[in-house]
């Protein structure tokens, strides 16, 4: 039986998280061109790790994915990052990270979790309970603005 754990990311993991983000982004046809054109977009802000907003997923003791959730004063939270190792995608790890971030946001007092997702990820986010609110402009073009209500 394989072991999966989600825990706060550690500061010393920042380079490994950024490399994971790069691999996952380059493996995704919808992201590859933008990442190659803007390699500086690969970043896991150190302040997010220090403040406990980044969560690492381990699979069999190895880093397999991560997500970040940021709280906002308006009573909602933002899923700010979600990446899974390319060879481990489509095994439920992304959904586990989304659910974990939703639980964290709920315990922090948020009533909804928002994400600006890539259009090619719309079905994934819908399957995680998000609904479309429209679009939002990003540095890479239009993204999908989506929300998931966080029930008590």
Description:
The protein is of the alpha+beta class. It has a single domain (4-149), classed as Aminopeptidase (3-Layer(aba) Sandwich), CATH 3.40.630. Helix content is 32%, strand content 35%. It has helices at residues 14-27, 29-37, 46-50, 93-107, 122-127; strands at 4-8, 54-59, 62-71, 76-84, 112-117, 131-138, 141-149. The chain has a seven-stranded mixed beta sheet. Strand 2 and strand 3 form a beta hairpin. Helix 1 (14-27) crosses helix 2 (29-37). It is globular.
Give the topology string: H per helix, E per strand: EHHHEEEHEHEE
Radius of gyration: 15 Å
**Which CATH architecture is right?**
3-Layer(aba) Sandwich
User: Total number of helical segments?
Assistant: 5
In angstroms, what separates the terminal alpha carbons? 32 Å
Total number of distinct structural domains? 1
Q: Would you give the CATH topology? A: Aminopeptidase
Beta-strand segment tally: 7
Order of strands across the main sheet? 1-2-3-4-5-7-6
Principal-axis shape equals: globular
Mean pLDDT: 92
Based on secondary structure, the structural category is alpha+beta
The CATH superfamily name is Gcn5-related N-acetyltransferase (GNAT)
Major β-sheet profile? 7 strands, mixed
| Percentage of residues in DSSP E strands | 25-35%
Low-confidence stretches: none
Please write the CATH class name. Alpha Beta
What is the percent of helical residues? 25-40%
């Amino acid at each position: 039986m394989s072991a999966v754990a989600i825990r706060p990311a550690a500061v010393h993991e920042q380079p490994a998280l950024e490399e994971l983000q790069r691999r996952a982004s380059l493996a995704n046809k919808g992201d590859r061109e933008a990442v190659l054109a803007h390699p500086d977009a690969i970043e896991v802000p150190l302040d997010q790790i220090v403040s406990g907003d980044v969560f690492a997923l381990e699979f069999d003791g190895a880093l397999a994915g991560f997500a970040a959730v940021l709280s906002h004063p308006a009573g909602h939270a933002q899923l700010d990052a979600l990446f899974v190792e390319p060879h481990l995608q489509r095994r439920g790890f992304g959904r586990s990270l989304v659910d974990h971030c939703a639980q964290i946001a709920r315990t922090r007092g948020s009533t909804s979790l928002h994400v600006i997702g890539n259009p090619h990820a719309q079905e994934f986010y819908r399957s995680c309970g998000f609904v479309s609110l429209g679009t939002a402009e990003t540095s890479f073009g239009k993204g999908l603005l989506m929300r998931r209500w966080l029930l008590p």
